[in-house]
Specification:
The structure holds two protein chains of two kinds. By secondary structure, chain A is mainly α. Helix content of chain A is 57%, strand content 2%. Chain A has 26 helices and four strands. Helices cover 7% and strands 39% of the residues of chain B. The chains are: A mainly alpha, B mainly beta.
């Protein structure tokens, strides 16, 4: 007897939503969200409550290096724990999104501690008003030193941050002039960090001597601020940074630019950002939905996304499994599926390193433009890394998540043998309602048949189910979200 | 020094010893425990990180003399993966605990490897994460068996003798205990880490009393990690999560709390002097910048003089207190006043 439960469109839609707003879902999570209905699931995603992730005190005690967060493996792993164990994965997806758009890198900033503080800022402000987010970003010490705003002085302007807030962060090329860049930079003079000479020297020298890194503190130096008159995007006044952000946020180019990023991250792959000035959005209607929500809700990013998730565009069958998972999505999603990291373990460093090997070093974007994503994630080498990591991770029937899958399969069938087709159906269902093509399905069923009889209640059966799961996470379809 | 009736014990900053030494050599990297040998030499267990490896046991003294480093990362005899604690026996042999390898390693006074013992498990005589060690007044070794929520007693050769404690929050129960100290009078102090309290036990392991409770007020703790007790019975608690050290008399009357006042050590000053760019930049350095955060861990990360993860405390010559900081790779020295 095969009684696959809860099969249906709603489950598939909820699974799609949870892949995009999180890292996929275990069966327990899927049932929890599905019980709320689609709107209820959205309510929960946008109001998740306590993340209830692995407590920070445990991480700091058992990994002393994840307290000072000095080196990239430490800071990356600290974030990895949060992503794998949080009950609010949408927060992490938002943080990943903003860290891709506002790409700062530990390679230059050196301090993992301030990078992690920036990620926490993205969690806190990432779904709120874009105006507030830009203000926080402009005061963020990691961003200040990443784009040299500590060298942006009243009498000697450095335009780096002034340029990038327009070009990379908020509006995109073609929506401002070179004069706007200079005036923007003038407005952000004096936005610096405490003890700037010593801190910037230490960053350049990249040494923990004598007493480790001192985390940076934002400081506004009024004496170094150019309070003169400025003309920016057609408006004139004695603008400071907040005034500039006000002007940026009310410009129609801004929500179009941000909506395109959101579409790329949450809906479907867009053209690479450098092509945006020359290529129309792949789905102008989707962009307009988000632009309208932005202006109707005080520049709210959350409102943009909620409107997008509620649209038929997002729910469409053609949108599902249309994105290539990033390395972080593969690694974190598979670890969550397997139920890893209930307790501090050095395996977290392997997971963080795996992301790097696949082409996405946490807190270390490839350039100021972040990661391109899409097809760029896939190469011969990265595919081998993806498959090996996923297969190894689910290859232990004693792991909490894998054991849960095995128990569910045992519960769905009378004691005895599970037919190969039913076993494959169950496994695809329990890894998050994965949909596979006919060729993949045939291969999985053939593998299941070759393994022989499977009694899920026995150790032998558990081993065979685990082997089938390893093959499933090695499939082409598992690479898609 | 006994305090006069009504006079509170104070702690006056004296000095700082340390230097970040991730690549090895003079200084420390993510140190987790400190112990003073009978001849006054100070041993710092410099654990290091999981990537760059164990840093070793570092030897110095109160005058900043640098002696040597021994041990280091590995699984061979005499090495460690995740060392947690060190303690001297009456013969100046150094014992070192490792929470990953679940073993105790013994070094002779010349730092030569002598022996190791321990086995992973939850039965009598087995460990699941030894996190603190101290010798009792009979010369037997007390081992905090962290994840088994108990303390066990062994002969120095590793023969199991007894244990006390179990998981929970009641009297004599533990929630991931960390450090352990035996006071001069034989009373055992255990840092009951996740219960935010210090528990005292008789020499035999019978519960006496506890002090603490979650919070940041006087007499409250946030994940205390270790304890030191002087000859007068004054108690010094490394209040790890609150990033401070609290002092009490033997009746748990609050005496003082210190947040740290570290300055450039001799080694650190030598480094600054040898690097002209850093010396010039440091000339305008304000060690106490105005902050927009209140979380003690965040405050410490941005304030160089403050303790950052004060993990262990030890008495020196009964007149001074050594406070070891994991995050700043140093220990600060305070005088009892």
């Amino acid at each position: 007897m095969s009684t696959v439960t809860n099969v249906g469109t709603d489950f598939d839609l909820i699974a799609h939503l949870l892949r995009r707003t999180g890292f996929g879902a275990t069966r327990d999570e899927l049932e929890e969200y599905a019980a709320l209905g689609y709107e209820g699931a959205l309510d929960k995603l946008f109001n998740p409550g306590d993340a209830d992730a692995l407590p920070v005190d445990l991480i700091r005690r058992y990994h002393a290096d994840q307290s000072d967060l000095r080196i990239p493996p430490s800071s990356g792993s600290f974030w990895m724990y949060r992503m794998v164990t949080t009950k609010a994965p949408f927060e992490e997806k938002i943080a990943l999104f903003w860290h891709r758009v506002f790409a700062t890198g530990q390679t230059k900033v050196i301090q993992g501690k301030v990078m992690i503080s920036q990620i926490e800022m993205f969690r806190k402000y990432g779904l709120g008003s874009f105006r507030e987010l830009l203000i926080q970003l402009s005061r963020d010490p990691a961003m200040i030193l990443w784009l040299d705003n500590q060298d942006n002085h009243k009498d000697a302007v450095n335009e780096n941050y002034g340029r990038e807030i327009l070009e990379l962060f908020a509006m995109g090329v073609g929506n401002y002039t070179e004069e706007d860049v200079k005036e923007c930079a003038r407005a952000f003079t004096g936005w610096t960090i405490a003890n700037m000479p010593y801190m910037s020297t230490k960053m350049r020298n990249n040494t923990l001597r004598p007493y480790g890194y001192i985390a940076w503190q934002y400081e506004y130096d009024e004496s170094d601020h150019d309070d003169g008159e400025k003309t920016f995007l057609g408006e004139t006044g004695n603008f400071n940074g907040e005034d500039i952000i006000d002007i940026i946020c009310k410009n129609p180019a801004t929500p179009r630019f941000i909506a395109r990023h959101l579409y790329h991250h949450f809906v479907a792959d867009e053209f690479p950002v450098p092509q945006w000035p020359f290529e129309e959005p792949k789905d102008p209607e989707a962009i307009q939905i988000m632009v309208d929500a932005y202006f109707a809700n005080d520049y709210s990013i959350g409102a943009m996304l909620r409107a997008m998730f509620a649209s038929d565009i997002f729910k469409a069958e053609s949108t599902r499994f249309a994105r290539i998972k990033s390395p972080v999505e593969i690694v974190v999603g598979t670890l969550r599926l397997a139920g890893d990291f209930d307790w501090p373990t050095d395996d977290v460093y392997k997971a963080t390193a795996a992301c790097t090997y696949m082409g996405q070093q946490l807190l270390g974007p490839a350039s100021v433009e972040g990661w391109m994503g899409g097809d760029d994630w896939i190469s011969t080498g990265s595919m081998v890394q993806r498959i090996n990591f996923a297969s190894d991770t689910v290859g232990d029937p004693e792991k909490r998540g894998i054991k849960s899958i095995i128990v569910r399969i045992a519960e769905r069938h009378e004691p005895g043998n599970v037919e190969p087709e039913a076993l494959v159906d169950d496994c695809l269902d329990l890894v998050g309602r994965l949909q596979v093509g006919d060729d993949t399905l045939e291969g999985l069923v053939a593998f299941a048949r070759d393994q022989g009889d499977v009694d899920a209640s026995t150790d032998d059966g558990a081993g065979k189910i685990t082997s089938l799961l390893q093959l499933i996470v090695s499939s082409r379809e598992y690479q898609l979200a | 020094m006994a305090t006069e009736a009504g006079a509170r014990l104070g702690l006056k900053y004296l000095d700082t010893n340390g230097f970040g030494a991730a690549q090895g050599g003079r200084g420390y990297y993510l140190p987790v425990d400190i112990a003073v040998r009978s001849d006054g030499r100070i041993y710092v267990l410099s654990r290091g990180d999981a990537i760059q490896g164990g840093n070793g046991v570092k030897v110095t003294d109160i005058e900043h003399t640098w002696y040597e480093v021994f041990s280091g990362r590995g699984t061979d005899p005499g090495q460690f993966i995740s060392a947690t604690a060190i303690a001297f026996d009456a013969n100046d042999r150094l014992f070192m605990a490792d929470e990953i390898l679940n073993r105790i390693t013994i070094f002779d006074p010349d730092h030569n490897y002598v022996a190791q013992w321990g086995a992973e498990g939850s039965g009598p005589g087995e460990f699941d994460g030894p996190s603190g060690i101290a010798f009792d007044t009979d010369g037997n070794l007390l081992v905090v068996d962290d994840k088994n929520q108990r303390a066990q007693r062994y002969t120095p050769e590793g023969e199991y003798l007894s244990s006390f404690g179990s998981g929970g929050s009641g009297d004599g129960e533990f929630n991931y205990p960390w450090g352990i100290t035996v006071a001069p009078d034989g009373v055992i102090y255990v840092a009951d880490w996740r219960n935010d309290r210090i528990q005292r036990f008789t020499h035999q392991g019978e519960f006496i009393d506890s002090q603490g409770g979650s919070g940041d007020g006087e007499g409250q703790f946030n994940r205390p990690s270790n304890v030191a007790v002087d000859n007068d019975g004054n108690i010094f608690v490394a209040d790890w999560g609150n990033q401070c050290v609290q002092a009490f008399d033997n009746d748990w009357n609050f005496q003082t709390s210190i947040r740290g006042a570290g300055e450039l050590s001799v080694w650190a000053a030598e480094y600054i002097d040898a690097n002209a760019d850093e010396k010039a930049a440091r000339a305008s350095f304000n060690p106490y910048p105005e902050l927009d955060v209140v979380d003690p861990h965040e405050v410490s990360s941005r304030t160089e003089p403050y303790f950052w993860d004060p993990v262990s405390v030890a008495m020196y010559d009964d007149s001074r207190l050594l406070v070891l900081e994991t995050g700043r790779h140093r220990f600060q020295i305070y005088e009892k006043v």
